[in-house]
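User: My advisor, Dr. K., asked me to get a structural model of this assembly before our group meeting. I'm new to this, so sorry if the format is off. These are the inputs:
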Amino acid sequence: MKRVLTSLEEAAAFVSDGDLITFGGATFSRAPMAFVRELARQKKKDLNLIDREPAMDFDLLIGAGCVAKVRSGMLAFEVFGMAPNFRKKSESGEIITKEGACQPIIAGFRAAAMGLPSIPVKGMLGSDLLTISEVVGSQKQIEDPFTGETMIAVRAIEPDVAIIYAQKADEFGNVRIEGPFYEDVIKAKAARKVVVTVEELIPNSEIRKMPEATTLPHFIVDAVVEAPRGAYPCSCFNYYEPDYDHIKEYLKAAAADRFDQYLDEYVYRRESA
Amino acid sequence: MNASIESPELMIYAMAAEIENHNTVLHGVSSPLPVLAMSVARQTHAPDMAYISGAEGVDPEIDRIYPSSFDPRLNRNAVAYFGLHEAFDLAQRGELNVMFLGAAQVDRRGNTNLSVIGDVERPKVQLPGGAASAFLMPITPKVVIWVTRQSSRVFVKEVDFVTGQGYDHRSEEHKKNEIVVISNLGVMNFKNPDRVMQIQSYHPGHSVEEIRENTGFDIQAAPDVKETPAPGRQVVDLIHRLDPDGVRRSEFR
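Assistant: The format is fine. Below is the predicted structure of the whole assembly, which you can bring to the meeting.
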């Protein structure tokens, strides 16, 4: 085992301009927000973002000018409504939006995790989303060789970097996720590089006491960063709830054309511990 | 006589009625109404249903809802976690009985649009995206589309973009699967030979005429059209207890 503990600044160097990246969590749950803010501070460019149901993580990077392309099943702020920067820049043409659907995105990650070039899924037939995906080359109708059934082959999605927010890890990258996993394990196995930012570092001896609690073993993980409250304002199960008031403040700033001020105050200012 | 019951409560009760006991049911993102409907069904006529939360808990004991339908507190006292990819496996096996999906537009053949208004390359309005719609709509035995603000702009003759597949965008096999549309005004189904949307029931305080006026195509009432059953006091109290902050009203503004 190699020690992979590093800083937020150095871990962000795993992400290059133009990379295809995905984040762990779902909407306001366990999104790696501290890492997202670091990407914005480092002024990453032309990122290509993919996930089934992202929210503030994607929207913040879009608003900070770090993003060229987005592919997601749904990108919104739950009951608070539209993702403001996503909507604005998609309508102005500043970003390219290629909508996916949750299953083909998840299945694409699963294919990559299994080392397969593609994987078949059901559904999709008859949707205009399939037509778009066939043009882009991410999905294709095929005939199952055994039953003749029409299936949709989904091309593997292998992100350059997957960034996961977890509750615990040791310095070697043995990671414990508590509560729901979402697709975090699949994404980590699918990606070329994996950065795990954690609420809390624990000793390797603790990990060894309960190996069944280890969600990701060290050889899948390229960097571990200790980032307490690093999912904030999203939730981290067993640690803190989402801060819905902060999320509303973000939306208010975007609606009032004060998003730059939001970035100044909460992002460009260094992360306080 | 039931005019005092508000639209969210009427819709939630009508949505709950679509769940049968022993059904396996999933809700997705941005889904306060489905979460409440599933909770009501479980505590009334469907105690044996399998409840799969979008927050990934199975059969959680929900004490209240939150602005996020993925809030981990919605997994309170769950018996297990079941990931979305596992729920999708279930759907492909035909074992997910009911799914609730939203729509920015729905048309007379049951197609839904959550993607774009205008040109897809340069949208006039970028919508949030269909999430699981295109995957689950054709293959799930029953999909309930909920729409909180019925108008002729939402109930259109043809959607701008087919995100979820209606009856004219399905294989013969998938035509067997049911679509139910529940709005703030009534319940619509497609139980006729042509598989076009018709009015199954109008909510208390509303009428067939009001639904027709707020639909962008010629919609007929089913021969057996009737008033939607209204929830009793106990159900209304349960909804209020589960949603003390009125999250359910957010989609009605």
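One thing worth pointing out at the meeting: The first strand of chain B starts at residue 24 and ends at 26.

User: Perfect, thanks a lot.
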